[in-house]
Amino acid sequence: MRFHHTIEAxxxxxxxxxxxxxxxxxxxxxxxxxxxQYGRDVLExxxxxxxxxxxxxxxxxxxxxxxxxxxxxxxxHDERIAIVGxxxxxxxxxxxxxxxxxxxxxxxxKYLDRRADDQLEDALTAAREAGHGSNDLARRAAPAxxxxxALRMMSV
Length: 156
What we know:
Helix content is 43%, strand content 18%. The chain has 4 helices and 5 strands; from the N terminus they run E-E-E-H-E-E-H-H-H. Strands 1, 2, 3, 4 and 5 form a 5-stranded antiparallel beta sheet that branches. The longest helix is centred in the last third of the chain and has 36 residues, at 94-129.
């Protein structure tokens, strides 16, 4: 999976307003790591390099966090899939890591489904504009989408 990350900070960890410290310039391939573990690794590396004054407040609330998103395209960054605070840098127990991996698999499947819907909508619209009949196109799109959904995609 490919991930994109943003490192954020706050001045008030109890009532945070987050601002971006650093956004990744591109996406990174992370074989075998969950989005949360990828986020932990990114944040730990950034903390080691930058050595900020505080990473948590006196109550253990994080002053730093990393927001991780899926991305297969260089300029595409979907909604956030993991947020890891500077209070959560320890590697989770194996059973919790399994939950993270299952969550990532589910979110990635949804992400791919949305991308496929966008691709199908573009193709249906282009075919309709080229003169093909909407009913024939709706039949062709089945069973990936129902007839009413296909017609809605074509804005018929």
